[in-house]
Here is the input.
Amino acid sequence: MDQFFHGRLVEQITITPADINDGYAGPDAVPDDPGEVLADSAYQGDHFRGAVWSKGSPLCVTATSMWRRNEKETLAVL
Here is the structure.
């Protein structure tokens, strides 16, 4: 995982309620000065991205996981 984060530390996390779609959390899930925001693919929508950008920070969304029996099957669906 270090190849993606280059030794950077996660300094703060926000947990959203289970009864709210992650992508709709938007401004409530972003602190005032978040720095670089790393999020999973549930947060790739414009609503959350806009909330992060409005606070002057970049958003880095990870790829959606691919579950298959092996690497060959996974690469075939990409």
